[in-house]
Design brief:
It is a single chain. The chain is α/β, with parallel strands linked by helices. The protein has helices at 14-20, 36-50, 68-75, 81-87, 90-93, 102-110, 122-131, 138-141, 153-164, 173-195, 209-212, 219-226, 284-288, 307-314; strands at 26-31, 55-64, 115-119, 201-208, 231-235, 248-250, 261-262, 265-270, 273-279, 295-299, 302-303, 322-330, 336-344, 346-347. It has 2 domains: 8-250, Rossmann fold (3-Layer(aba) Sandwich); 261-347, PDZ domain (Pdz3 Domain). It contains 14 helices and 14 strands. The strands form 3 sheets. The protein has a 6-stranded parallel β-sheet, with helices on both faces. Helix 7 (122-131) packs antiparallel against helix 10 (173-195) and helix 10 (173-195) crosses helix 12. The radius of gyration is 23 Å and the shape is globular.
Length: 353
């Protein structure tokens, strides 16, 4: 990689950069989905843009466009956060720690900024990846973007490199390419549709660096539709050569999301419930008496019927918090009994619970 030189006397602070971009109707901020510093940058950019004139919206990759009515209901205070996450199927479709995205969504909600779900549905992209565009069902065909650009060979080459990093015998690159472009074109079409609504409209787009870096993913496809180039911003990562191609690269220290409180329990969702499959070392749940095979019924009196219920009730739990875990356990004689166990949560060192 060619060394990059930062000329400090010509560098700008983020507020100075945002002042420079005040007339931009379209700004992209790329992310590595698990990088807390990227989401902090997104929040800083969003706060700056919210102080500037114009009708600002926030377009995000994290929610799929078919759930826009649910997003709108949450932003209008018609449903609560738990219902919002449940009905957008966030934990089934995106799965990254929602605490990374929560401050961005809450800021948009507080400021009454439209939150636009940009992404193509998992059903559509998965089916295209499996059989190709020509063979998808008529129902899914209705979700296809209205236009494709297959002419960006540089972007295609970068996608081929990604594809070849994970070779499997049952995947075709053509189908992978079609799925990726469906992803990009869908998000670009949704961005363009918002901008086309009024010349006063502005939008900040939060999506993965792969969709933004080099402009081959979303940005050039929005430009094709609207004529608006937009500006791209991303943190600089020396180990991610492919993605260090934004208009403005930000030097930011790596940061960690504050630790969540966990039980150090391995889970198995089956048979209409969430079961304890095992434990990781030093599990406070195991020490309190919870056993492998227990069916989790409730946490702190809140019913747990599925994995999403458990994720929601644990969302705000911190290390040191005491919880009450209610379980049902099968007995040797074929019956069952219900028990409750109290214990303090410990800090997360992994994605376990």
């Amino acid at each position: 990689m060619t060394p990059i030189v930062v000329e400090t006397k010509n560098s700008a602070t983020l507020p100075q950069l945002m002042t420079k971009l005040a007339d931009e109707r379209l700004v992209y901020v790329g992310e590595t989905h698990t990088a807390y510093e990227d989401h902090l940058l997104q929040l800083d950019v969003l706060r700056e843009m919210a102080t500037q004139p114009g009708e600002l919206a926030v377009g995000v990759e994290w929610f799929q466009a078919r759930f826009q009515p649910v997003v709108d209901a949450y932003m209008a205070d018609e449903i609560d956060e738990a219902e919002f996450l449940r009905r957008t199927e966030y934990y089934e479709r995106w799965r990254f720690d929602y605490r990374l995205y929560r401050p961005l969504v809450q800021f948009a909600k507080e400021k009454r900024l439209p939150l636009i779900a940009l992404n193509a549905s998992k059903e559509l992209t998965s089916e295209i990846g499996r059989v190709g565009i020509d063979e998808i069902s008529e129902q899914l065909r209705r979700e296809l973007p209205d236009d494709y650009d297959f002419g960006d060979k540089r972007y295609e080459d970068s996608l081929r490199t990604m594809f070849e990093m994970h070779p499997t015998s049952d995947r075709k690159f053509e189908h992978f390419l079609q799925a990726q472009l469906t992803w990009d074109e869908t998000m670009a079409q949704n961005v363009a549709a918002y901008l086309d609504g009024s010349d006063e409209r502005r939008i900040v787009v939060f999506a993965g660096k792969g969709h933004i870096g080099g402009r081959g993913g979303i940005p050039n496809r929005v430009t094709r539709r609207t004529g608006i180039r937009g500006a791209t911003i991303a943190t600089f990562n020396p180990s991610a050569r492919q993605f260090n191609t934004a208009d403005y690269m930000i030097l930011a220290n790596a940061q960690s999301l504050p630790a969540a409180g966990i039980m150090r329990v391995l889970l198995d969702e089956r048979d209409g419930g969430v079961f304890v499959k095992g434990f990781t070392p030093d599990s406070p749940a195991k020490a309190a008496g919870v056993e492998e095979g227990d069916l989790i019924l409730a946490i702190n009196g809140v019913d747990v019927n599925n994995y999403v219920d458990l994720k929601l009730v644990m969302l705000d739990q911190l290390p040191g918090n005491e919880i009450e875990l209610t379980v049902r356990r099968e007995t040797l004689l074929g019956g069952s009994r219900t028990d409750s166990y109290r214990f303090d949560l410990v800090a997360a060192a992994s994605r376990h619970f």
